[in-house]
Design a protein that fits this description.
single chain, 349 residues, alpha/beta, Rossmann fold, 6-stranded parallel β-sheet, 5-stranded mixed β-sheet, globular
């Protein structure tokens, strides 16, 4: 399948390839849908094995941002960018200036923010050459705490629906990924009395969770199969497929990672297994709510952001109810919920 066919398959409006020979920059920017407003989505810096892997990632992630922004009630479309290479070797002010100039060439069609391996320092350097950034240190700052809060609120809604309780005290949660969001989520859960099992590729991150939060370390082989009430995927996406979900020993899936399920068939399989899946772009929208309101509101107010993030609890319950009413998976219910918002706006335009 060629690039244009892939764009058509995912429904993209625009795909931009950029490079800068002097700094070694190689990037792909995907603008999926701008029906609701300018596309907003983070920049992911990853040492992809192939350019096809990078293209696959940016197409899926940007489509997810369209759905996430719509479901979160933001007047924003969906986009995403990936930078190909090793961030430890390539990062510099000149590098991000080159990248920022590519962002600037799109004018107000795409705003970027932090994502995997990019931070507020990087955003500040991009901002030196373009205004089309969000999650800036001077205004909304690091979105990770809001992402973690949103996942926690979504998880609480899932617990209410699945277990009929308002607390996760005594529940065991298997957490895959202890980056800034995953660790912050663990802190929320620990305060409420959850028992944590954790895995991360970084031994230091695991040791921190063990020593500070009393977590129990598990291996890469165990993290998907260990006995738990809740599985919280907080690393990279596409970790669950039709086959491996049959080995899960949980009743609820809720995490911060994007595109956790490989496809819709995996969502159907989880439904058949009676495992409640809370769609990632519904529960992990806290970060984009934080960054999005920096773009759309005349004045950024942290209390307004916090209130909107807390509403993820109610949105999650709506998705669960919609799935039950229409006898569909929560994966399909979330897509329907978001697309109904987008298509309704297209009809009015």
């Amino acid at each position: 399948m060629n690039v244009l066919e892939q764009m058509a398959d995912y429904g993209h409006e625009q795909l931009v390839f950029g490079r800068d020979e002097r700094t070694g920059l190689k990037t792909i920017i995907a603008i999926h849908d701008t029906t609701l407003g300018p596309a907003v989505g983070g920049t992911r810096f990853w040492d992809y094995k192939t350019e096809d892997d990078a293209l696959y990632d940016v197409l899926r992630l940007s489509k997810g941002m369209s759905l996430k922004n719509a479901a979160a009630g933001l007047k924003l479309g969906g986009g995403k960018a990936v930078i190909i290479g090793d961030p430890c070797k390539l990062k510099s002010a000149d590098f991000f200036h080159a990248y920022g100039r590519i962002i600037d060439s799109l004018r107000d069609k795409y705003y970027t923010a932090e994502d995997v391996n990019t931070n507020t320092t990087d955003i500040s350097q991009i901002q030196e050459v373009t205004a089309y950034v969000t999650g800036t240190p001077a205004i909304s700052g690091n979105p990770s705490p809001f992402t973690a809060l949103g996942v926690f609120r979504g998880m609480k809604a899932g617990i209410k629906s699945k277990f009929g309780t308002d607390t996760m005290r005594g529940m065991t949660v298997s957490v895959m990924g202890l980056g800034s969001v995953g660790y912050s989520l663990c802190e929320h859960m620990k305060k409420e009395g959850a028992i944590l099992k954790v895995y991360d590729t970084n031994p230091a991150a695991v040791e921190k969770a063990v020593s500070k939060l009393g977590a129990v370390p598990v291996s890469a082989e165990e993290v998907l199969t260990t006995d738990c009430d809740i599985f919280a995927p907080c690393a990279l996406g596409a970790v669950l497929n039709v086959k491996n979900v049959r080995n899960l020993k949980c009743k609820l899936i809720c995490g911060a990672a994007n595109n956790v399920l490989v496809d819709a068939a995996t969502g159907n399989e989880l439904e058949a297994l009676d495992i409640l899946y809370l769609p990632d772009y519904i529960v992990n929208a806290g970060g984009i709510i934080n960054c999005g309101l920096e773009v759309t509101e005349p004045e950024y107010k942290v209390e307004v952001v916090t209130d909107r993030v807390n509403q993820i609890y109610d949105t999650t319950l709506k998705i669960i109810d919609l799935a039950q009413e229409q006898s569909i998976s929560t994966y399909d219910a979330a897509e329907k919920y978001a697309w109904d918002i987008i298509l309704s706006h297209r009809t009015k335009s």
